[in-house]
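Reproducibility note. Readers wishing to regenerate the assembly model reported in the main text can use the exact inputs given here. Chain order matters: entities are listed in the order in which they were concatenated for prediction.
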Amino acid sequence: MPSSSSPTSSPPASAPAGAATAHRSPAEVLHHLERLALPVLLVIVVVFFSLFPPTRDLFLTTDNISVVLANQSVVLLVAGALLFPLICGHFDFSVGATAVFANIVCAAAMSDFGWAAWQACGLALGAGALVGLANGVVVARFRMNSFVSTLGMATALNGIIQWYTGGLAIIGIDRRMTTFGSTTWLGLPLVVFVVLVVLLLAWYVLTHTPYGRSLYALGSNARSAVLVGLPQRGYTRTAFMLSGAVAAVAGTVLTARTGGANPDSGTSLLFPALTAAFLGTTGFQPGRFNVPGTIVGVLFVAASVSGLTLSGADTWVTAGGISPSTPAVDRDLGA
Amino acid sequence: MDPHVTAPTQAALVARSVTKAFGGTLALDGVGLIVRAGTIHALLGGNGSGKSTLIKCLAGVYRADGGEVSIAGRTLELADMSPPRARGAGLRFVHQDLGLFDELTVAENFALDSGFPIARGGRIRWAALHEHVTGVLADYDIDVRARDLVGSLRPSQKTMIAVARALADQVATEHVLMLDEPTATLPERESRELMRALRRRADRGQTIVLVSHRLGEVEQVADAVTVFRDGRVAAEHTGPGLRAAEISAMIAGGAFAGLSGGPRPSRPGEPVLVLDRLCAGGVREVSLTVRRGEIVGLAGLAGAGKSTLLRAVFGSRPVTGGTMRLAGRPHAPRSPRDAIAIGIGLVPEDRHAEGILADLTVRENASVPVLSRYWRRRLFMDRRGERLDTAALVTRHAVRTDGIETAVGKLSGGNQQKLVLAARTRRRPALLLLDEPTQGVDVMSRAEIYATLRDLTASGCGILAASTDLDELLVLCDRILLLSGGVVAGEFDPAVHSREEIVSAVLDDTDPTRD
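Running the prediction on these inputs yields the following structure tokens for the assembly.
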């Protein structure tokens, strides 16, 4: 912009940006409350089950925390994988199937072909990234609706999984892999730290790189974003590739945790992850998909389900009951 | 003609001491308004002056903090107003977004508002519906059929459909119709036609309240004018004979001497854009030159190819023939990204669809075109630098906002447009393409936008501006090219040619059937 003195530089009625911090209006206070509503809810749930007589002695024990976190590590990664396409405005319903596919690839490489653990993990990551690339090309290049095309991808992956395994579990993987999966550090399973590192990287890419910022712009208004020169196709393709790769990390973590692979459909991973990602939009940066919100979302669901299970609820109590409440929470707080 | 017409001196709507505060700011400070029956009453004022807030308080969209309104003798407290009550009292609103469904027929659009006539068994009585709607259309002199798809209609016809639909349930002319910027997106001929249609309704006794930024049409059509400034009524005028220049002085409150583009450059520099027989879509063999430091206007009716031409230069429409040269070099962008990289900027026509990122913040919108600038050492985003730059940008371009972390969707139209212009010129383009640069923008924001554009030309930028608003081109441009049927049909110099000459060229040249 021209820096020469402009006649518009000091209009009397103009509210200078940032001057509104002098006093906080009720609306602003509400806004801050909203940002923290989800973590506060998590704390309330944890406190409740720590004091509630039937679960008091079990809920806040190292064992329970360890089990819950380990079980949620795969869901956390799948939810993290979902964020990339969701932020740039696309669904990716194949992340669950991609995770299982990577799980199968990883286990089969070790069990059926005798590969070493690190080779198998590399292969699984590559396979996941390839699946993501295929999704990305279909959505970005051929402009197919991601809702339909990624559901199709999930179905196709399921077909491949069932064809290869014949519906049977794969066992007999590299010993080092199972050891890694059961090792604990600081009282927590090692995989939890792997998940943390991956999510930290995802958070960094999404908030501290031009690429991540561009994804938010594309998701907000793709036509505007193209007209300011963002490469929509390339960035969308990359988002799906990252999604596939992170889902593949979830698959390898699953291999390490279970010591093999189950030819599962992946929906048991997809739906809790979707729930968490959407629940996450109510916190920290309301209205936006974000990594910290998603993590708290997963933990909120996990803590609620764990608490209810420990207090004697039936096993059908799942994340499903929590997802419909998401919009309600958001609306009640005046989003 | 109509036995129920009320005497023209009687007040149809009286609002008294309407007050509304948002947070600590008084958006309306004891505003009063008297609208006489059977007149067209224009509400004017800058963005954020309170006219829209008043309309929304009357509509019951906002709860006013105080005040009352009398409609046809019935008095209602505005603090208890709600949309059903406003409707019950006989207020009808047509918003800028008309709420029509393009893929449905005119009759279906009517029925979705007032209900389908149903026969026994839940079947829709299509014949009865079409007959009824045909009657309404005839009554409103709208020359379309009930079975036409709304998407196939011209913009002024669509607006009149929305008007007729809003008033469909009145017996005579007892309702008060409120139109919010009906012509903001209409080209000259369409808005004239709409104004004539509204005038005919008013002459038959309809009371109409009109919010508009286009002073020319207000001058033509309004019987009375109320001007808002800073939440108060700044001036009122009744009766014809008000000139646009006087109105803009009333809006700006004396601090403003009317729109002008500022001093023109004495000598434009070397050519920055040269088109030689360019063909693209509806554009056939356009040849033109834009020099550094000059503003070239593109006039013409909607569909004359103005937008297509800009898009072709910007690389988002394929070029089918001819050549382009940018700063002396052959120019053949394959995408907007290419065009931006070699120094072209575009401010698109439809700021909602192509300009802003509505749910992102002012800061994010301002930074999107230059994100890599803040990518320090390929390691982290320089948030602090970004905030400082954004604050400076917002101040320099007089974007009124509650802070740089406000979602852009919450800003008023004029401020959104200033922000889009500010953001898209951050790379200091050598050539700036503008498509309807001040559509739906109030007169003061316009002046600020024009000043920014003049600053840009002073630093050597060439500007090609397409606009359906001739007054804008006259004020802003050094030369005006008339685009008609995809070719340049004439060139005008605002300093030499009068407005009338150019208007008649735009209308007559392409439209021999004009009434």
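We highlight two features of this model. Chain A has a mean pLDDT of 84. Residues 256 and 318 of chain A are 24 Å apart (CA to CA).
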